[in-house]
Specification:
The protein contains one helix and 44 strands. The protein is an all-beta fold.
């Protein structure tokens, strides 16, 4: 009995201690910050059986329960928990359904919504559908009608589609997953069995964004023309040159304002964060046509930036680069505006018809200015030429070697007797032409339609046209390449004499000089300071290995073996007939060869050597060294590595650090210095055209 009492006492003690440790969760201060119910609405879903039975589903934010006043005189409203529905039968009529939403704190909000109950089929159904301006794949739909209670919409992009419901005054959205044409159906319901349907075609297309190449199938390129400008997308009528695409845009400038043009609105803002240059291909009926490219904000035309360039070619595609680097990137731009010949009223003729294509943002490759020698083969070099007197020059392909790029000049009917072509822009070369007393000559390779045609070459000071020299030679071959040498000490009678104290920047070629144009076509290439050693019959720089009278006596050392051979790879940038070959046999790792010149190298002409090399592998080291005639300790060298295998490339050796107070008369060549050769094809190299600039 005592044990039982002890046990009961222990239980009582434990109960007391538990009560002392009880935790109370009675902090409800968070309720003080709870907001009132908001955004209340109701969805009415009426049964189509003439009973007037309506399912009411209230919605709202922060609502715990709803009180639904049916608006038909029913004495007591219905209480509906959030997420639930209530049903009520109505007679035909229009009712104001009142919602009272109550939150967890007791705060309430009210909303009233109109309900139409009719057993008649809905009438006057109007459906509005628009493509969302921020998403070209999204459609926004709203509708209104007479006698309707509810709308259901089928967007037409899936099988066995479950329709979405919405009320008059609401907008419902749907995002399509693919471009295409869809049939959307909106069904208007009343309380009767009869419904009314409206079908609409929804066209979903890819957004028009950069680049604009006009090639996307099914895409609508909607241009907005203004003041006489008229743009359309057409099949490319000039598939040639740099543009062989199938579709292009055409701008016809009709009578109107001088600023007549067109604009297109893109589906997204242009991104100038990385690329700030526009490129555009243009086909103009004439040289000197102005092309204005402008970007604008779609809703604020004052936020804009524009650049205007001038065409340099007629009836041929050219690429224009517009510098937009100064644009304010804090603004957004969606419109592209184009105006051709701004300031001149068009007349709708062929003279005011332009083609354009491939508008894109980019950062341009650095383009080197034109300079001698001019080969038309160097990448990223501006080989622009400037015709005058109605001459016409285009980029072309060597008729005897498809891999060789050349220029083709046509002297068409109507061209002046003095029609010619400046090699480069109107300002000529980037650097002055370096003629010397020992070599006052230039050479040009020409492929002429006949022998005996006079070709004139003129050089001049770009800042003073009166400072010039003209010389002329006759072609000796018909439909075959020949190298013409122009000696400026033998000027044309009546023209200024050569004065080496003057500076000459420009060179212009005149084909068939003195005869009016009659359609003759000339190919030309390789404009340079004359490199044929026959001009002075002295072994010196440049070394081209083409002379039949000079001896190219290489002195080989430690395994190197250099000889002059017939060019076994007459292609690419080197179609000359003779080249030098170096075979590196077993010997020392520095095996090579040198040649002794008959004159010291004139570094006043320039301090940059260029040499064409044909190597069996990428990464072949090529060491070019010059030495004093009697003291090998007086020397200067540079080493480069090839970037091509089994193809000619031109290496450029920077000798700007050479001590010009010393004299140098030997040229030393070592291939793969540091590696012992084995005389195989892997250690056989070709080199040619060692020239100083």
């Amino acid at each position: 009995m005592k044990n039982i009492h002890k046990f009961l006492s222990m239980l009582a003690f434990i109960a007391i201690m538990s009560a002392c440790n009880e935790k109370f969760f009675d902090d409800i201060s968070f309720l003080e910050t709870a907001s009132s119910p908001a955004k209340m609405s109701a969805l009415f879903d009426i049964t189509q059986d003439n009973t007037g039975l309506v399912t009411i589903t209230p919605n709202g934010e922060g609502v715990a329960t709803f009180s639904v006043n049916f608006g038909d005189g029913t004495a007591s409203p219905a209480t509906v928990d959030a997420g639930k529905s209530v049903q009520h039968k109505y007679a035909e009529g229009i009712y104001s359904v009142k919602l009272v939403g109550k939150g967890v704190t007791g705060k309430v909000s009210e909303s009233t919504q109109e309900l139409t109950v009719s057993f008649k089929a809905p009438e006057n159904v109007e459906v509005n559908s628009t493509i969302d301006p921020a998403n070209p794949f999204k459609v926004n739909v709203s509708a209104k009608a007479t006698y309707e209670t509810l709308f259901k919409v089928y967007f037409g992009d899936v099988a066995n589609e479950v329709p979405m419901s919405f009320l008059e005054g609401a907008t419902i959205s749907h995002t399509y997953t693919a471009v295409g044409t869809y049939e959307m159906k909106v069904v208007a319901l009343s309380g009767g069995k009869a419904t009314t349907e409206v079908k609409k075609t929804i066209n979903i297309v890819s957004p028009v964004v950069l680049p604009l190449d006009f090639e996307t199938a099914g895409q609508t390129y909607k241009f907005s023309n203004f003041e006489g400008g008229d743009v359309s997308v057409i099949a490319n009528p000039q598939v040639s040159g740099i543009n062989t695409s199938s579709k292009v845009a055409k701008m016809v400038k009709n009578p109107g304002q001088t600023y007549g043009g067109s604009l297109i609105t893109l589906g997204a803002s242009m991104d100038f964060s990385v690329n700030k240059y526009f490129s555009m291909k243009v086909f103009s009926p004439r040289v000197g046509a102005k092309v204005l490219l402008k970007v604008e904000n779609a809703s604020n035309g004052s936020q804009s930036f524009e650049k205007e360039l001038t065409t340099s070619k007629a009836n041929v595609w050219e690429e224009l680069i517009f510098d937009f680097s100064a644009i304010n990137t804090a603004n957004s731009y969606q419109n592209i505006v184009l105006i051709f010949d701004n300031g001149t009223r068009g007349d709708g003729s062929a003279n005011f018809t332009f083609l354009f294509d491939d508008i894109k943002l980019m950062n341009p490759v650095v383009i080197a200015p034109i300079n001698l020698p001019v080969t038309f083969d160097e990448a990223n070099t501006n080989y622009t030429v400037t015709d005058f007197g109605n001459n016409s020059t285009i980029d072309g392909i060597d008729p005897t070697n498809p891999s060789n790029k050349v220029k083709i000049t046509t002297k068409p009917s109507g061209a002046e007797t003095w029609a010619g072509t400046t090699i480069g822009t109107p300002t000529g070369f980037a650097s002055a032409i370096k003629l010397t007393a020992s070599n006052p000559k230039m050479s040009v390779k020409v492929y002429s339609p006949a022998a005996g045609i006079p070709i004139r070459l003129k050089i001049e000071d770009r800042n003073n046209a009166s400072i010039s020299v003209e010389t002329e030679v006759l072609t000796k071959s018909a439909k075959a390449w020949e190298e013409l040498t122009f000696d400026f000490t033998k000027q044309v009678a009546g023209t200024p004499t050569l004065n080496l104290a003057n500076t000459y920047h420009k060179a212009s070629l005149f084909f068939d000089f003195g005869t009016a144009g009659n359609g003759k076509v000339f190919y030309w290439d390789d404009v340079k300071i004359a490199t044929t050693t026959e001009t002075n019959n002295t072994l010196t720089i440049p070394l081209t290995f083409e002379s039949t009278s000079l001896k190219y006596d290489f002195l080989n050392f430690d395994g190197g073996n250099a000889t002059v051979i017939t060019n076994p790879h007459s292609n690419g940038i080197n179609t000359s007939s003779k080249v030098a070959q170096m075979i590196k046999n077993g010997g020392q790792a520095w095996g090579g060869a040198f040649i002794t010149l008959e004159k010291t190298i004139d570094f006043s002409v320039g301090k940059t050597f260029k040499m064409k090399v044909y190597a069996p592998k990428v990464g072949t080291k090529v060491l070019l060294k010059v030495e004093n005639l009697t003291d090998g300790g007086v020397s200067f060298e540079k080493e480069l590595s090839t970037t091509k295998a089994n193809a000619w490339e031109e290496l450029t050796f920077d000798f700007s650090g050479i001590d010009v107070s010393k004299s140098y008369q030997k040229v030393v060549l070592i291939f793969d210095n540091g590696t012992k050769g084995d005389g195989s094809a892997n250690f056989t190299y070709l080199f040619d055209d060692i020239i100083l600039y």
